[in-house]
Amino acid sequence: MLYYLSQEFSAQFSVFNVFRYITFRTGGALITSALIVFLFGPAIISSLRLRQGKGQPIRADGPESHFEKAGTPTMGGLMILCGVLVSSILWANLSSIYVWVVLMVTIGFGLIGFYDDYLKISSANHKGFSGRIRLVLEFIIAAFACYAVMSAGEQPFSSSLTFPFLKDLIINLGIFFIPFGAFVIVGAANAVNLTDGLDGLAIVPVMIAAGSFGVIAYLSGNAIFSGYLQIHFVPGTGEVAVLCGAVIGAGLGFLWFNAPPAAIFMGDTGSLALGGMLGATAVAAKHEIVLAIIGGLFVVEALSVIIQVASFRITGKRVFRMAPIHHHYEKKGWTESQVVIRFWIVSVLLALIGLATLKLR
After folding, report:
1. Which secondary-structure segment (H or E) carries 313?
2. How many C-beta atoms surround the C-beta of residue 356 within 10 A?
3. Cα separation of 114 and 194, whole Å?
4. pLDDT by residue (tens digit) across 139-160?
5. CA distance 321 to 88
């Protein structure tokens, strides 16, 4: 919205020229979303606590320290989504198809997560609704997003897979880009969802990943910078950096209330939406494999669950004391703050490695 004001009034008032710069609008989106969550967060938390009663159900087989969190409201992702959506519409250039694609995935996955949270609360059960139905809905949304990304770009590059460290290696997936991209988006969403098990554990790595992909999207959408770094130029993706800035700001606001002891949980409403947003951004910027590096913590969390389930079904034995893996370390005696902070450190290191792929080619 503010971008159009710059075009309308920049000839008369030079101060409006700053709204043309993606970097300025990214900073504006960050501050705006943070303020929205800070200002409206207490009212949202009070309302959710009143409506939910007992709050999010706690796993009976979980670490004993988690029983102290009984009664904490969930669906805190609503705070994050409000901040992201309002600031994105306010600061982003809405003529970019990539902005709408990423927002569509974010909203769509957020709605799925909201319904799942609602069922958990109403039934006082942590399982929610059918996992198969949820996955089908997620894949439908993700497939539409990938089709839009493929249609918006130039063929055959828009349907191709690029590789970090290898600038000349490009594989054209053709129509198979849609299921591949959908897998990336759905996988990212559910990996973040599995990571969201401790106070502050998921939101900080999400902000780190969003900041990293904000940089990647900006550089990929800039012909000069992408040419200098020898990364693939994807016109229009620079605007997605504004959305990434909005996620960071909303995440900072949410962390204020989610820091131990959490006043509210993100819930599937937030984790699915933010994970889907990261996946859609990676697909739009043609850095799908880099997402597995920057979001390596989420990958490990998801793999720990897959390994645990597969091992128990095949051998009857468990590899980890409890999955996802952050619970394994809790069972080993790590305090919650130790697990969270150490996982944050791992996320920072992985993000630096992922960003290094922009130059090491």
Report:
1. helix 296-315
2. 12
3. 16
4. 999 999 999 999 988 888 888 9
5. 42
Q: What is the average pLDDT score of the chain?
A: 89
| Cβ proximity of 309 and 319 under 8 Å | no
Confidence of residue 136 (pLDDT cuts 50, 70, 90): very high
Say which residues have a Cβ less than 8 Å from residue 13's Cβ, sequence separation at least 6.
Answer: none
Tokens of 26: 């990214």
Dihedral (CA of 67, 69, 74, 80) sign: negative
149 dihedral zone (left: phi>0; alpha: psi -120 to 50; beta): alpha
Nearest to 99 by CA among 313, 281, 335, 251: 281
CA 101, 95, 351 angle in degrees (round to 5)? Answer: 50
Residue 165 to residue 153: CA distance in whole angstroms: 23
Mean pLDDT of 3-20: 67
User: CB-based contacts of 86: which residues, under 8 Å, 6+ apart?
Assistant: 32, 33, 36
Is 184 within 8 Å of 283 (Cβ atoms)?
yes
Which two three-digit tokens encode residue 116? Answer: 């799942």
For residue 163, the surrounding DSSP H or E stretch is strand 160-163
Is the confidence at residue 61, as pLDDT, over 60? no
Strand (E) or helix (H) holding 169: strand 166-172
Would you say residue 50 has pLDDT above 90? no
What is the phi/psi pair of residue 169, to 5°? -90, 110
**DSSP string covering 321-356:** SSSSHHHHHHHTT--HHHHHHHHHHHHHHHHHHHHH
Find where tokens 């969403």 sit: 189
**Residue 91 backbone dihedrals phi, psi, to 5 degrees:** -105, -25
Strands (E), 173-232: none
> Token pair of 217, please?
């999207």
